Amino acid sequence: MLISGKEKLERMRDGRAIYIGAERVDDVTRHPAFRNAAGTIADLYEFKADPDRRDLFSFEENGERYGLPWLRCRTREDLVRRMRAMKAIADATYGLIGRSPDHVAGLITGLAMKPALLDALTPGFGGNLTRYYEHARKNDLYVSFAVTPPAGIRSREIFTGEARDDPTLQVIAEGDDGVTISGMKMLATGAVFADEVWIGNLTPIDDKRASESITCALPVNTAGVSFWAREPYARHARHEADYPLSFRFDETDTVLVCDVVKVPWERVFLHNNGAMSRRIYIETPANCYQNHQSNVRFWAKMALIVGLASRMCQANGVDRIPAVRDTLGRLAALEATIGGLVNGQIEAYEQWPDGYATPNRRIMYATLNWCQCAAHARGRGAAADAGEH
Amino acid sequence: MLISGKEKLERMRDGRAIYIGAERVDDVTRHPAFRNAAGTIADLYEFKADPDRRDLFSFEENGERYGLPWLRCRTREDLVRRMRAMKAIADATYGLIGRSPDHVAGLITGLAMKPALLDALTPGFGGNLTRYYEHARKNDLYVSFAVTPPAGIRSREIFTGEARDDPTLQVIAEGDDGVTISGMKMLATGAVFADEVWIGNLTPIDDKRASESITCALPVNTAGVSFWAREPYARHARHEADYPLSFRFDETDTVLVCDVVKVPWERVFLHNNGAMSRRIYIETPANCYQNHQSNVRFWAKMALIVGLASRMCQANGVDRIPAVRDTLGRLAALEATIGGLVNGQIEAYEQWPDGYATPNRRIMYATLNWCQCAAHARGRGAAADAGEH
Amino acid sequence: MLISGKEKLERMRDGRAIYIGAERVDDVTRHPAFRNAAGTIADLYEFKADPDRRDLFSFEENGERYGLPWLRCRTREDLVRRMRAMKAIADATYGLIGRSPDHVAGLITGLAMKPALLDALTPGFGGNLTRYYEHARKNDLYVSFAVTPPAGIRSREIFTGEARDDPTLQVIAEGDDGVTISGMKMLATGAVFADEVWIGNLTPIDDKRASESITCALPVNTAGVSFWAREPYARHARHEADYPLSFRFDETDTVLVCDVVKVPWERVFLHNNGAMSRRIYIETPANCYQNHQSNVRFWAKMALIVGLASRMCQANGVDRIPAVRDTLGRLAALEATIGGLVNGQIEAYEQWPDGYATPNRRIMYATLNWCQCAAHARGRGAAADAGEH
Amino acid sequence: MLISGKEKLERMRDGRAIYIGAERVDDVTRHPAFRNAAGTIADLYEFKADPDRRDLFSFEENGERYGLPWLRCRTREDLVRRMRAMKAIADATYGLIGRSPDHVAGLITGLAMKPALLDALTPGFGGNLTRYYEHARKNDLYVSFAVTPPAGIRSREIFTGEARDDPTLQVIAEGDDGVTISGMKMLATGAVFADEVWIGNLTPIDDKRASESITCALPVNTAGVSFWAREPYARHARHEADYPLSFRFDETDTVLVCDVVKVPWERVFLHNNGAMSRRIYIETPANCYQNHQSNVRFWAKMALIVGLASRMCQANGVDRIPAVRDTLGRLAALEATIGGLVNGQIEAYEQWPDGYATPNRRIMYATLNWCQCAAHARGRGAAADAGEH
Predict the structure, then answer these.
(1) D322 chain-A contacts, CB cut-off 8 A
(2) DSSP-assigned beta bridge partners for residue B171
(3) Is A103 left (phi over 0), alpha (psi -120 to 50) or beta?
(4) Touching B: which chains, 3+ CB pairs < 8 A?
(5) Minimal-distance CA residue of chain B relative to D381
(6) Burial readout C353-389 (b: 16 or more C-beta within 10 A, e: otherwise)
(7) Could B156 and D318 be called an inter-chain contact, meaning their C-beta atoms sit closer than 8 Å?
(8) Is pLDDT above 90 for A28?
(9) How far is the alpha carbon of A314 from chain D, nearest alpha carbon, in Å?
(10) Helix (H) or strand (E) holding A180
(11) Of B370, B180, B54, B202, which is closest to residue A341 (Cα–Cα)?
């Protein structure tokens, strides 16, 4: 079931602990730093739930309808449908909501196409993942993720693995009913508006730090869980005309802090395995599905850039100057390039075991690389924006 | 019928007038400047004619088999087959024979998908084109082309259109049996080894210069037709080990000179129309098919570059240095990018009137743009190589 | 006489008409949008006036001391002294106050090295300029400038010169006591904190629009003169720690609006000459001195960038990763490059008539070009920042 | 004494062992692969020896005149004179003779400004160096150098230091009268035409390989010494018009092979010290003087590029197209940039112990970095050309 925008707003009022500096935010749907972006997310849900767009945004399985980002594709046509749904979602926010609900949906769906991998690591965890996948798609969940250790301690962690008193989120106890975790994890983008948060690792973990490898998922309003937002841009955007982007599209990054949080076993997908905590995304379609969404979103964003550049040149009356036309033509070619690459991933799609299919991974990673270079060439230093974890 | 390499070599011994400076080349299949490249072309024909590769390189129409580059595609599957044939041709020479027989074949095939355009300009010329298309594919012809005016006089021609005594190839007389042409045209790449030469314009022509708009095709050994080669690289390449590329792959550029040459009407496809002499390629699939081949060839060449870089780093024992690996990874990503773009053109293919299909043109032109930038980034200034006319 | 910071703040409280949207700013030294930057400017004055830095910041002429930016250099040593003073000014704000008082001081000083040019255009105007130069340096004035027509109407103005109802600042009447001007001009950076505003043209003016060529200077608090600020960044910068740059260094751009403003003849330096209204800066040392300051300031800014990058890498513990060290090394090389170019301008200095000297102009313009490319390479799209009018 | 071109040609006929593949070259001044470049070098000597250019090319010390590249500078004026001499030498070959005689002259002169460093490593070696410096400048020697180990074995050497049977030039015996060396060293550019060859290391040497650290100098015709040229370009350049650069300026790279060669102690400057064999150039002015010459030469070459681009655009009639003018303008700015950087090195020159002076080293290295980037931007992959060892 795809839920309405109103339902999505309701879900955001669940007592979640959001902080801006020392300020505890009472209700993210009403707070000036977040209310507009909350509205944008709600609009996205409303847009997707529109019965007239049923085929664009959902698929049927065993008599129930789910959002297309949750589709475990089997054919080229499946991949096309899934991509078009994500493109429509991205277009709706000009690609500016980078971690829209379809991003982590892709990651979870990718894992659900090969749960045996998780089972092989710890018997039963593959089943946990499959049940979580079913739960998430059935409830049209918006899952955000926190998958890197805090900056500033990364190098010691990765490169030398020495003992230290570590603020990184890790398992501090385990028992019959689950594990207990404490510590910080980054960069839970969009978590302020999400339903759940996925905890894991997209950077390599030293095996000596196996307690940090914990991979699990929690509702954002779980006791002991809090999110610490960076300075919200939306707060400065008093007039939409002055800050048309920040005004609506500030999805916000946050630091996830877990303070002695219980995670039941059914929500644990990997434990005590540094190397594999990252590789599960590579050895399943997870990383591919996730980053394919990033490619698609970047495509939408490129259209915004081309359109803006074109309109600005017209407004300034310079659009007929040959050098300007040349530059606009090259920008338009960039939009066609990213579009071509996304299409090429599907044309050259890959078959996986059990009849599944993914976009072509080499082309997908090449697209990430291209996005970083294009972002660079655009003069925006937007590498972090282009390339995903 | 696909002809053998031996037959192709035979055809090159037809009395064609090839000059290197003041030297008239007697037999291109034996002259040290050309014999190796002649052998390379012959090998290509032999390779294509191999019965075991029949499905890779040819298609059936009305009971006869033709080379796949001549296929007027109707479906996505047609486009895939045609692309794979061209990729195999390009791979066979590492993409270094830029104007292999499939290049101009694409241009002619594209025109043959909309001959009504030529008929609308001059009644009967559409039929001329269709018959030439049938003739060329039936005889497995290698057609080269000369489609730009001599450098050094371009600017006056294009930008001011003033009267002058003009060396550019143009019609100097016409009669019942055809037109008479004289003058120079560039840059007939591969003409030394081809069967025919296509004469036309890929740069805009001022309407005052309508006599230069003549678009026609001639056997390379036509009386009055000569080709003046640039300095052949192969001549310096005494040892294959020293010049592995020039030794075999010097396809040569030439200046076409026509000295009072008669062209029968049946070989004329456009006459007296400056603006349209270029636009016929744009308003039909011609330019798209032609440049799609260039994209595919560039893909093959990029694989050579990536492979060479990789082997050189291994040979120097530097392939495990992180900065080198990073660069090799980026090069490999470039190869995947061009591959993704070629595939994307097909995934997003376009429907044309009469049931025909072409690769997506916006993506195709974006790929040309990307090739130029990639060529630049590779530090080879190979813009001319990457972007085609 | 170099004035103190306190005196500078006093001067800002002169009834000047500053607007942020509909809001009239009462006192720029107290308004939250401007008070910190006002303090920064005052600190600069205090810093320069420090008796211990007398030789660094001032020179003596006819028994009086003036700020070094006002020095009409005659020797290489003069150029070195002047550059060092400007570097110290730029370093004091990390190069972030782009239009510090020494910028337009350079422009006026350059004109004062060849006032005969103005006299040749209109007898007496050279004398006006010389007297204004004396006045400005004697009073340690902070002069800002507005030297481009409003964006959006530029193209028609420059390229076609058609008649229209034009918002650009122009002379609407002239009489025995001076001219009357009305209209808008951009981009009076720093005018909010300046003492006077120079009005002129750094873009070419069509001769049909000669009334727009007016070149003059006015106190910022002149009746009928107002400045309309862009959205102030400082207003969002509630905590210095969050916005360390906007907090102090938001010098602000403004649109200058003149509403039927009288300019006495003694303050007019050029009138009714479209072509020369720009060329007076090129044919005198004005443009060179002005942009030399920009080069010097960019040098200071590059040191900030290098330093920040270095500290951020240390803070994240990544500064010893080879790829990071390589990037930091290249950044440090950029700082040395801009330093080398500024020094090179002085080493290769040019002699002018009347014994004057300027930095080498070809190198100076090449430095502007380099700054734009470097800005681009830094991924900041800061061309406007790097290249000056 | 500066010697004449004729004398220089004589010196090249000294029995030196030069090989092109299996072919032993009898007389480099007459062999088609080398005679033109030999003539170019002779012309350079003739040009420098012209009495009318005495002040441009030479300085006086203790009553004798020496070439300016051998000047141990003490003042800014010295640095200016030395730079101007090198610029005139570079201009005479458009910067295409990269290792003209002033290159290694700078390296030796730099060592001669701090011979105590060599003495501190091995007593007496400083004196050896000083006497060699005196000898070289007195005889106007052309010294080439071979300062890197053979490619392909570098990584093992640098990164792991494992035992192997090593083709790298090394000391195989030592006795009272000197050391005996055997092995290969690269990339003795210009050695075919030089008088002597300097052997040493510009890449780091593992201390386990101390026998490779040998730093010495030998006449090119020493028994057991041979030079193996890469494929000469000049051989293909039958007509100057076709290959105007290769025809005259092919200075040639060679692999130096020493086959049990005796080096007397007086020609040894460093022995058995891996780390210092490279650092002696860094801790003296040697590396700075050497690379300053490379910067100056690159400046000359950039002028050739700008000039050629300009002439080609004129010849093609495209020089007035705005986009072309823009590109030509940027190329001209590159020439001014390198000129500005060379001048800036001198303006910001550094004082050394004993009253010596060098160009500013940070700016000099930044210039090397810029040259590599510029070479890259020119699309020539000429990093190796731009950046020197």
Answers:
(1) 322-323
(2) B181
(3) alpha
(4) A, C, D
(5) B379
(6) eeebbbbbbbbbbbbbbbbbbbbbebbeebeebbbbb
(7) no
(8) yes
(9) 20
(10) strand A178-185
(11) B370
Interface of A with C (CB under 8 A): 151-156, 159, 231, 235-236, 242, 315-318, 320-321, 376, 378-383
How do residues D3-40 score in pLDDT, each as one tens digit? 999 999 999 999 999 999 999 999 999 999 999 999 99
Give the whole-angstrom CA distance, residue B109 versus residue B104: 8
Condensed to tens digits (0 to 9), the pLDDT of residues B178-230 reads: 999 999 999 999 999 999 999 999 988 888 889 999 999 999 999 999 999 99
Q: Is there a contact between B337 and A369 if contact means CB atoms under 8 Å apart?
A: yes
Q: Which of D154, D159, D316 sits opposite B154 (nearest CB)?
A: D316
The distance between the two most distant Cα atoms of chain D, rounded to a whole number of Å, is: 72
The whole-number pLDDT of residue D207 equals 83
Span of A21-30, C154-163, D277-286 with lowest mean pLDDT: C154-163
With beta carbons less than 8 A apart as the criterion, state whether C271 and C122 touch.
yes
Sequence-ordered strand ranges (E) for D116-199: 143-146, 170-175, 178-185, 196-199
**Interatomic CA distance for residues C326 and C322, integer angstroms:** 6
Count Cβ atoms within 10 A of the Cβ of residue B122 and give its class: 0-12 exposed, 13-18 middle, 19 or more buried. Answer: middle
How many degrees, rounded to 5, is the angle at CA D289 between CA D288 and CA D290?
90
Q: For residue C380, what pLDDT band results from cuts at 50, 70 and 90?
A: very low
Chain C residues with beta carbon closer than 8 angstroms to that of B322: 322-323
Among chain A, residues having any CB pair with chain D shorter than 8 Å are 322-323, 326
Q: Do residues B229 and B250 lie in contact, with contact meaning Cβ atoms separated by under 8 Å?
A: no
Numbered residues of chain C with Cβ closer than 8 Å to any chain A Cβ: 151-156, 159, 231, 235-236, 242, 315-318, 320-321, 376, 378-382
What the block records as the tokens of D335 is 């020439």
| Closest-CA distance of chain D to residue B26, Å | 22
Minimum Cα–Cα distance from A321: chain D residue: D322
Nearest-angstrom CA–CA distance, D373 and D370:
5
CA of B323 vs chain C CAs: smallest distance (Å): 7
Chains with 3 or more CB pairs under 8 A to chain C: A, B, D
- Which ipTM did the prediction report? 0.92
Length of chain D, in residues: 389
Q: How many CB pairs under 8 A join A and D?
A: 6
> Is residue C149 pLDDT above 80, yes or no?
yes
With 0-12 / 13-18 / 19 or more C-beta atoms within 10 angstroms meaning exposed / middle / buried, residue C241 is exposed
Nearest to A380 among C154, C236, C379 (CB): C379
Q: Which of B95, B112, B102, B62 is nearest to B81 (CA)?
A: B102
What band does D242 get if pLDDT is binned at 50, 70 and 90? confident
- CA B238 to chain D, closest CA, distance in angstroms equals 11
Q: Is A350 helix (H, G, I), strand (E, B) or coil?
A: strand
Buried b (16+ CB within 10 A) or exposed e, B82-97: bbebbbbbbbbbbbbb
Give Cβ neighbours of residue C308 (< 8 Å, ≥ 6 apart): none
Give tens-digit pLDDT for C265-298: 999 999 999 999 999 999 999 999 999 999 999 9
CA-to-CA dists, residue D114 to A278, A286, D216, angstroms: 55, 62, 17
Q: Which two tokens stand for residue D213?
A: 């650290």
Angle between helices B322-347 and C322-347 (to 10 degrees): 100
* B236 to chain D: closest CA residue: D236
Q: Which residues contact C237 (CB under 8 A, 6 or more apart)?
A: C36, C243, C246, C247, C250
The one-letter code for the residue type at B44 is L
Percent of chain D with pLDDT over 70: 92
- Which of C333, C344, C370 comes nearest D343 by C-beta? C344
Q: Which residues of chain C lie closer than 8 angstroms to D359, CB-CB? A: none
